[in-house]
């Protein structure tokens, strides 16, 4: 009874209980351990990486990073990933924000059907689209180009941008639009100068999701860009061909792929939380 009372008083006072701290530490360890294993394996030689039981103490080496960056051209694939991710994010935001504003502010014929079409685009499994997209890209000469990947990724990122930004624009009071129109501002000026700055948390969240999806996507990158425009995730799985699997190279490439996304997520985490919770409480 006393233990339950102390836990209840600790909960009311906002101080964490010892059991909660231990549970959070276990969950944190469970989430962080795969990243620890990935990074440490990337610093091992092939012999040390294959030891059983695993070698917890070893002499780290940067040979795997040197080989994947300068001998296996992973650096080029990282540049390709950056080009595709940035282009997809910019175009998705540039096309999705005006569309979201129109869906949130105007009434027109077929609005519900258009909204439903945008949302249901995310219901389609990418596996279903791989073969027809491959044939179309090869037929029009876009295979193994950045443009093919950007156009494909936009079809997946645009519904997310429209979905999030439409909710953001709806949370902005319509009285601001009416006040601006009385001052002589047109629809474009209201969107650009008033609504868009107020909806920036949602725009930031949309940009984050678009960038992460474009950076990490593997299926279409592997099929549509096999050589010149190959992205980093597609390059990582090429090391798994054959009987000798270079675990150090694979983990080094995976680390190079994950680290920029983690840094980007940490930098924009404040905008992510604000954008996801904005409009939840009226």
Task: Give the tags.
MetI-like fold, single chain, mainly alpha, 282 residues, 2 domains, 75% helix
Strand and helix map with partners:
Elements: H1 2-13, H2 18-42, H3 46-49, H4 63-71, H5 74-105, H6 111-120, H7 126-139, H8 146-170, H9 174-182, H10 187-198, H11 200-216, H12 219-224, H13 232-237, H14 247-267, H15 269-277
Helix pairs in contact: 2-14, 4-14, 5-8, 5-11, 8-11, 9-10, 11-14, 11-15
Description of the molecule:
The chain has helices spanning 2-13, 18-42, 46-49, 63-71, 74-105, 111-120, 126-139, 146-170, 174-182, 187-198, 200-216, 219-224, 232-237, 247-267, 269-277. The mean pLDDT is 82. It folds into two domains: 16-61, no CATH class; 72-277, MetI-like (MetI-like fold, Orthogonal Bundle), CATH 1.10.3720. It is built from 15 helices and no strands. The radius of gyration is 24 Å and the shape is globular. Helix 5 packs antiparallel against helix 11 (200-216) and helix 8 (146-170) runs antiparallel to helix 11. The chain is an all-alpha fold and 282 residues long.
Short précis:
The protein has 282 residues and is mostly helical. The chain is built from 15 helices and no strands. Helix 2 (18-42) packs across helix 14 (247-267) and helix 9 (174-182) runs antiparallel to helix 10 (187-198).
